Amino acid sequence: MKAAEIMNSNVICATVPSTRDNVLELFKKYEISAVPVLKNSELVGIVTRKDILRKIEENQLALLMTPNPVTVNANADVKDVVKILTSTPFRRLPVVENNRLVGIITVRDIVKKLAEMNFEKSVKEYVTPYIVCVWEETPLNVAGEIMRLSNSEMCGVLNDNDELVGVIDEKIMLTETLIEDFIEQTSYSSSSDTDDSWSWDAVRDYTVKYFEVSVVKLPKDPVKKYMKQPEFVYPQTNVSKCAKKMVKSDLDYMPVLDSENRLIGTVKDKDLIKVLLEADL
Fold first, then answer.
1. Of residues 266, 234, 241, 77, the one with CA closest to residue 156
2. Distance from C-alpha of 79 to C-alpha of 105, rounded to nearest angstrom
3. Which residue in 35, 99, 91, 111 sits closest to 73, CA to CA?
4. Do 101 and 246 contact (CB within 8 A), yes or no?
5. Would you give the DSSP letter of residue 165?
6. Domain boundary among 116, 131, 152
7. How far, rounded to the nearest angstrom, does the alpha carbon of residue 259 sit from its chain's CA centroid?
């Protein structure tokens, strides 16, 4: 199986010169979190939401993007693609042919392919045996701090009966709305050398949090207002069924329950796609 068989050839791109606002508009319009950057039709970089947050005071795309991104050829074996994605922080790889961008392949694209296939192998060996959880009434900013301190990108949400009723993840924390609010507030704050009591009142209901090296401000509303409805699997669930649930739920992690429906861990998408390294494709 080749990269060309899995990649998305309808790639949304940005071009330089351009600005942060134009990129944010692309993210919002197409509900994506990263775009390749072209100059004279050639790939010169890639920019993500986190790139924007890392350089919050920068507006020029050329200075926001990551230049010279890792790429794969359209004829690359999917196993080579999986090796790169599972051994690096990358979640997407531009696909090139003769130095021209012809597509992009993401971890989610590979998970979708797994969902279409018939892998009967259980997810048991791909389970990470722990999951951080919070109560459904926990303020989102507190849940964000718990996720930061535990280095978690996903958090289960429990009700009063210890039942899993939802999940929150980094995608929820890094919405365009919060990014735009943070950029606007940062720009406003940096324009003045004084601390006005009313301006502090305007932002005191938000807390600045760090996810890796990214910065967002999180409201204090309870997590149940933001959580996604939960899907889950059991250790005996097969890989393809788990992949289908990940796609359906728009989750990069799938909660795992035991025979008594208690949470015992998670399956990460990057771990799940490792099944292809063992497959005869």
1. 266
2. 13
3. 99
4. no
5. E
6. 116
7. 30
> What is the CB-side half-sphere exposure of residue 112 using CA atoms within 13 A?
11
Answer yes or no: are the C-beta atoms of 195 and 257 closer than 8 Å.
no
- Whether 140 and 109 map to the same domain: the answer is no
Q: Which residue has the higher pLDDT, 39 or 209?
A: 39
pTM of full prediction above 0.70: yes
Residue that has been written with the tokens 């788990």 in this structure: 242
Cβ atoms 149, 187 nearer than 8 A: no
Tell me: do 132 and 263 sit in the same domain: yes
Residue pLDDT, tens place only, 159-171:
999 899 999 988 8
User: Residue 3 is encoded by which pair of tokens?
Assistant: 């990269």
Count: domains in the chain: 2
- State the Cα–Cα distance between residues 72 and 1, nearest whole angstrom: 14
Of 280, 278, 256, 279, nearest to 268 by C-alpha is 256
Q: What is the CATH number of the domain that holds 62?
A: 3.10.580.10
**Least-confidence region, from 51-60, 106-115, 247-256:** 51-60
- What DSSP string runs through 182-231? HHHHHHHHHT-SS--HHHHHHHTTEEEEEETTEEEEEE-SBGGGTPBPP-
Domain boundary among 116, 147, 180: 116
Q: How many residues does the chain have?
A: 281
**Left if phi > 0, otherwise alpha if psi is -120 to 50, otherwise beta: which for 226?**
alpha
CA distance 90 to 71: 11
DSSP annotation string for 104-136: EEEHHHHHHHHHHS----BSGGGEES---EEET
How far is residue 260's CA from residue 119's CA, in Å, rounded to a whole number? 25
